[in-house]
Each structure stands twice: as structure tokens, then as C-alpha cells.
Amino acid sequence: MEAIKKPSVTELIDILNKPALIGWANRIGLQGTSLDEYRKRVRVDGSKLHKDIENFFMRGEMVPDLGMQKRLNDFISDKEVLECEKNVETEWFVGRFDIKFKWHESVCIADFKTNHTNIYLENRLQLAAYRMAELAEKVFIISVPDVSIIPVSIVDFDPYEEMLKCLSRIYFLKQSV
After folding, report:
1. Vertex 27: Cα angle to 47 and 125 (nearest 5)
2. 74 contact partners, CB below 8 Å, separation of at least 6
3. Mean pLDDT of the residues in the chain
4. Largest CA distance in the chain
5. Residue 34 contacts by C-beta under 8 Å, 6 or more apart in sequence?
């Protein structure tokens, strides 16, 4: 019997129902854009921006957008980058976090999100997953292109970790039927 691969953090979170997406998809459609078109455009733009940021942190390469370069320099001025784009694995899932850094004596893990303002359950689960695999005291979302830090307050990680384990069990059960 062939072993079933571990799910990614994204695959686990995709199991969840996300009713807020219905309203979002409707707004996109009302603008006269298909979801496939929109996703393709956003994916290309987001991938380019993410790659520029990754190259900045991992290789010290300048970002083509001078405004973005300044915001990244300002962001990193009081932080020590520990790791970037690191693959992680637990017994429940695999994943890849964007950045781990030391800031104000705390080890932090963060995920870059484009024009992010709200914190959703999915964001908390994603960051809790990375924290399960890689110890950190604090978790953040870094909204780009403005490079603003959005604290994600999680007082007790246990419920999120248990949800991830349950989602993993559901994933494996779905694969076995």
C-alpha cells in the first residue's frame, strides 16, 4: 500500500468552509472579472513581489521599487533575520514560513500578505502551524506593499493546534476512502 503524503498547511486550511469568500467572489464578478482571471493576475503580481522580498532578505538584493526598498530597509532596521522561506514539517503537515526574526528580544514568525488588514481564522491557523513546527514567541502578518506589521494576538495556541491536528486527520481520512 502506498503511503499518503502529508498535507501542506494550505491544504488543511482549504478543508474549512470560508463563507466570507462568497461575498468577495461576488464583488469580483460584479466588477466584470472572472475569478480565474483575477486569481491569475493576483498570483503573478504577488509572486513577483514575494520573490523580490525573498531575494532582499535571503541575498541582500535590491528591490526594483525604490519605495518598497526603503520600507523593507525601515522594517529590518531593528530586527535580526534568523531564517527566510524555511520548509517545516510536523507529524501532521508540511509547510513553509516566510520569515523568522528576532525583535525586542522575542523570536517571531511572520507571513507576508498583500494588502492585508483583517485577521481571519485561516491566518491564525497558518501562523499557529508554523509555530508548531518552529518555536517562536510571537506571530505576525506583514502586509505588503506597505510593509506594515500586523500583530496576531493568540493567547492560547492549543485550540489552533488541535484544530490543525483534526484537519490533518480529516485530510488523511478523505484520502483513504
Report:
1. 55
2. 147
3. 88
4. 54
5. none
pLDDT for 80 equals 95
Decide: 142 and 113 in contact? Cβ < 8 Å. yes
pTM of the model: 0.84
* Euclidean distance between CA atoms 115 and 21, whole angstroms: 16
Domains of the chain are 9-176 (3.90.320)
Flag whether pLDDT at 7 surpasses 80.
yes
Q: Which amino acid is at 124?
A: R
Q: For residues 43 and 48, what is the distance between their CA atoms, to the nearest angstrom?
A: 8
Burial class (CB in 10 A: 0-12, 13-18, 19+), 91: exposed
CB neighbour list of residue 141: distance below 8 Å, 6 or more residues apart: 110, 111, 112, 113, 116, 119, 123, 127, 149, 150, 152
Q: What is the mean pLDDT of residues 12-27?
A: 77
Strand-pair partners of 143: 113, 148
Mean pLDDT of 117-127: 91
Q: Given a cut of 50, is residue 171 above it in pLDDT?
A: yes
What would the mean pLDDT of 144-165 be, rounded to a whole number?
A: 94
Residue type present at position 9: V
